[in-house]
Amino acid sequence: METLLIERSGGVVTVVMNRPEKKNAMNGIMFDELTQVFREVEHNEDDRCLVLTGAGGEFCTGADLTDPRGAMDPSTPGIIRMRRLNETALALYELSKPTIAKVDGLAVGAGMSLAIGCDLVVASERARFSMIFTSRGLSPDLGSSWLLPRLIGLAQARELVLLAEMTSAERGKELGFVNRVVPLETLEEVVATLATQLATGPSIALGLAKSLLNQTFQTSMAQALEDEGRAQAVNFGTEDLGEAIRAFMGKRPPVFKGR
């Protein structure tokens, strides 16, 4: 691909946004390639966890507003351009596989939106985040106006969005949109350990758990119980459940196959 580096190992797909000269700002090609990769991972049974990161010591500084083929394409109406970009956010959010944002350096604007669109955000101590949109005469996009209040509450989301200030990784953890903050020298190891744990887990159960959590603010308790029951009914028929029981009885770690 032109703007991404893709590596697959042991069920973990690492997607590196690779425009370091632009601090990994997303041009039109990158948006299209990210959408393509997210959809490929969804349908590839061998892909069991996705790690999203950036090259050159930065995560992503948002959409490249200088790219005439991207968010600022003058030949296409704005709403049409944004629907194309929104496909990227939706493809990431709808992934049934666990996703991890490995964040070093800047994650701002749509870059922060991508990060918080992942299931887990693991950041280096020097990582910085910003809902920078309003300082550029824009409003939040790529799902951040929906995601952020659900992660940290409406009052804190208002502060981050309206003031558009830079936020440290540690502050992000306190607010609740960053899961773990680690020294830069251990970032790779920590994310690799988490990704391996998820990639070797019971894929069907993990996907169902993720779906249940994603629906939690849009359903009633009664509907949640019904959805949980249906999910468990699916889990009861998997090979992984049988393996989990055998492993428990045999006092050994389970070896899940994702089936």
TrEMBL record:
GO terms for molecular function: catalytic activity. Pfam families: ECH_1. Signal peptide: none annotated. InterPro entries: ClpP/crotonase-like_dom_sf, Enoyl-CoA_hyd/isom_CS, Enoyl-CoA_hydra/iso, Enoyl-CoA_hydra_C. CDD domains: crotonase-like (cd06558). This is Unannotated protein.
